[in-house]
Amino acid sequence: MRIWLAAVGKAKPGAARDLFEEYKARITWPFQLREVETKKRLDGEELKRAEAELLLAALPPGATIVALDERGRMMGSEDFAARMGQWRDAAVGDLAFVIGGADGLDASIRQKAALVLAFSPMTWPHMMVRGMLAEQVYRAQQILAGHPYHRV
Asked: So where does S-adenosyl-L-methionine get bound (predicted)?
């Protein structure tokens, strides 16, 4: 299974990018980051639609999409790992996580998603969410392998 992350914005050097890179390096599944940005000055719904087009274009055809959105389903790490294991065992070739921009995700991405996932009802900085996601993917990998990294 290949893991993809399509995200709006380019990560600048600093703690948030370092956190993402640290956990990405620990993940044994192939993990590819695709950063997208609109070149046009757009606002509101028009901006979200343009970002959605770029995000979807950054993903491989047929990928199983997980949209990260504050209105999504919250799950514990063990449930998330179980879902990752189900996709792995179902021979999902490409699992794609999508993080929108400051205005959030367009409804078209949420509709295409196999799972709409929230880390919390709180709003998190988009660059920080990348690191949180990478850590949870790594944690899921370790849970599925029976490794003691995850403790309850």
From this structure: 68, 100, 119-124
